[in-house]
């Protein structure tokens, strides 16, 4: 019985291969987008875990010196006092054809549990003698090399792990270490560090390279997009499954009349769906993997540029990711098929085989949808009022988008009714009435289109707003014509002396790590100079802010710190190490920096932390290229240590562009899926519309005219959807700019409108809709009399 | 008396080669203006095909079909559609109505298409067809008989020169069918409309002015 | 006894120190004429006179070296105790350099044995930074906060009085050791042959310490007194390919004599020893003079270890059987071995220490 029944059920798909293709394509695309995004996230998280576990996980506290480096004798002194500390030397340097982070560890005292331990152990004597490890990708980037480096996936991309002695030599830091890691368990009864080494600062473990925490918002962004794309894909599946059920009602009736139990039938149908889900899921996983592999280099570049997170550009296959993707596909299919199965369950054995016209049932469900939409809209308003938290922000986003999507059919129905009321002439009236009647059939696809369009508008508006603001900000921030990075403190002082005579102005950068309002951050020194007074952008400031800053009377903070800690200039105080509470004088935008930052006057900085080396010089010059040449001649600095303004801007812009490249790519993919959804809906509808259109043909409307009307209908519906998507997209942009960005990155940007972008989107959407609507319309146009007459034919 | 429909030496074959079936073999027919003609024949004899050819819905192999003075062999698709809109009225056994339009809109639809809309006439038709109380309903809310009456009303409302009806009362019970047919004949007579009625019922056929029988592709006047 | 998971790195490093007890890379005796191994390490030479205090310090040109103190102690609670303090040196390359670039690797071991417990701890470090090493003036051998420091009077041999300290996770000790006799040289004036192939080390001892101090145990401090024995040994390629491990004994006879004896187990058992009179006169015991007979094994740390022995020196009229204070005195460290105090009886009575490796 099972076999016969299954054969009967599956015969439907053999006869409707297009429907089957749509169902599988929808599922596969949904799976691909979701799992592709998850693959990116998994890869990145794995990379963070690699980075953190390299040196014994995130549970080791660090000891650092304000001066930036510690004499290695301090290490011995603390060990001799019984403290279990291990030295680390870390620094950037040019190696082969790239720049790398050289990480030097001392394997004999390194805290237990790091992956470096497993890596180094088998060849520890070679390691001590100079063997190093690096990610295969890093080795490729370095190219030919003198060092003995071995490939290992356990080392973060861009890092070369080696023995501390060799690292000291390479980094020109012989006799010094960058920091000490403190083993989590120490013996009782030791002299306290505060007494033993008052100059060293203890950094708790969580302040270290907590990349997972820093990048959470970025990954949440990706996940949200993945979920959106998945939802859009499920629209296709839902409509395909629903249609297949409706078309097979006669078959269900016959099968049940022939004695197949309802439960059995339902199980068979569920099994059929599961089979499709598995087939499409496998294809989707493969597609998702390809998508992720092609997007990963950009994502990795973003994460490196924005957060300094070492993510490799090559994707590893991860079974956990594949399993999760497949589970998501099965769950999504179950969700999409649940309604159809439920209908089958409630269907009387001898239900009318003729699919009932759906107009009135459709209107009822439209009203129900409207109700849900109103509830969601109210939820969104409440969420917007209560605010707080990135997850709340995304919940707000989801509620608002879903409310808009659910209410849209009602809005469209209203618009079409209006059109009908205004229409003169029978064909025009029929056009509107018919569009209205078919709206429930198309509404799922139109909702998908709405989501895709609104997302496009919203994200596009956000990115464009950001770009405009960012470029203006860069022009103000990157005033210095040349930037020079000394390699050692001695080179820094030599440069300082030399540059006084050669540059119009020398603006040294000094900085130190510090906790600011409880967050890891940095304090910078700012020289009192016209360059800053004239152009340093400020969002908010007290009067005479520059005079007061120069006089050491207060601190400037970045927007991120301002928003997270709520420190208002003029009233708030910021606690700084050594200095205690310092008045907040102003807030400056600091795009692209995930951490808190504060600026104090150079004099105050140098008085407070005299040991701090100069990490960089910003130089003003009328003749920057000549200045660069002079510096290179005098100091032999590699080109990586000297940057001109144009280079710096280009670098910043490339980081910026890559940050949003992934969202752009997902945008395009989502729009494509919506186009496919519309295509699927229109094609399946066209098959059912023969009965509706044949009488009109018989009444004297040519198939050509009917086809033109069908095209017009698709364009009108898409146009109305686009009109509706515009305010929805702007609302989305506002939520992104005012809620999500503030939570995720710590900065808020003004919303700007870019109508030219909308026009471009309208054009693309119009083309997508035409591409979706032309094939079924063309088929209608080409219908012969036989096909149309069959509708009226006698039962012979 | 002018002719509403003239058919001369009409040939139509379905299929090709040994499987070919010639449904019309040099058929000749004339329906004068204001007259009614019943076309009878066995199931599958080609009655509906003949009707569809007359309406310009189906192409034919050879011969001549003149519809209210227009030779449809010369007419292109557009011209045939124009003929269907303004000159001919069609009533099928089922699926006559535009599902997205209300009964009222369906009733007046063809009259408006042909530019001969007369609201008073439509109202009178609705009264006489017994569907006046159904005007705001939609086709799927009607019974088969009600749908058929709306279809007949729609056809008559456009005042066509020729009504082509394919088993128009097939869905109706005998009494209603008779009443509807009476109305059709009466209105056709009033408006000078000719009526070609395809049916397999000799009882209905006997009520028409004339009757032809289709057998083996030949039209014969029964004795 | 604690079972702490050892880092694989220190495990590998500790393996470097196993050079003494397992077959090693190329024993380059063929280069003995040049006085170096194939990779440039110096090789002990017969007849070279040891020179003090310099030879108390480190010999970075030799591959391996140790400062090894054992002590048999009695607490004011009346119980027997044993203590071991060792600093091992292993060179990746001959010679030394400043800072982390130093090729000298140091390993500290500390053990404390009671009748029903055995504590062990270890330390690792690199020379060159001051974390671990040996200084001569004043003498100190140290790694992290462990040390063996000279407290001898000016002009006296630095080993005459030592201050020894070590701490583990659950134990610690502070000892004061005063030598009651002269240094003793094993083999041929300190040139100690270790196999029939001729591998040898420099080897001398200070076996005459009187010790007092404090043991810090989980139950609280215990004041102790007793006797100690310091071994100094360095070499570059001491063992033969087939030698699997050794059993080393130090005996302090109740009559004031001392005796050191060891056997290297291999295809052929190689034995050697030194008979020491109370005034420090040493007689080397040639290969075969001593006989070591295991008297049954115990299951220790998952292996069968012969913790009771009969030791015979027929020519000297010595025949004693040993009884460990704690048969489970396993040094459960990156490199595991058995090391603990014992008492012996038979022809003579007294206390001693036993080290067994390669089980």
Q: Summarize model confidence as the mean pLDDT of chain B.
A: 85
Q: In what range is the share of β-strand residues of chain B?
A: 25-35%
Oligomer: heterotrimer
Report the strand count of chain A: 21
Cα-atom Rg of chain A, whole angstroms?
Answer: 33 Å
CATH architecture of chain B: 3-Layer(aba) Sandwich
Structure write-up:
The complex is a heterotrimer of chains A (796), B (223) and C (359). Chain A folds into four domains: 1-53 and 223-356, no CATH class; 66-199, no CATH class; 361-478 and 646-796, no CATH class; 479-645, no CATH class. Chain A has 26 helices and 21 strands. Chain B is α/β, with parallel strands linked by helices. Chain B has a single domain (35-58, 77-220), classed as Rossmann fold, CATH 3.40.50. In chain B, helix 3 (103-113) packs parallel to helix 5 (144-157) and helix 4 (119-129) packs antiparallel against helix 5 (144-157). With 359 residues, chain C is mostly beta strands. The A-B interface holds A 356-357, 359-360, 425-427, 429-430, 433-434, 436-438, 691-692, 694-696, 698-705, 785-786, 788-789, 791-794, 796 and B 43-44, 48, 52, 55, 57-59, 77-78, 81-86, 90, 92-101, 105, 108-110, 112-114, 138-140, 166-167, 170.
Task: Write a compact overview of the structure shown.
The complex is a heterotrimer of chains A (796), B (223) and C (359). By secondary structure, chain A is an alpha+beta fold.
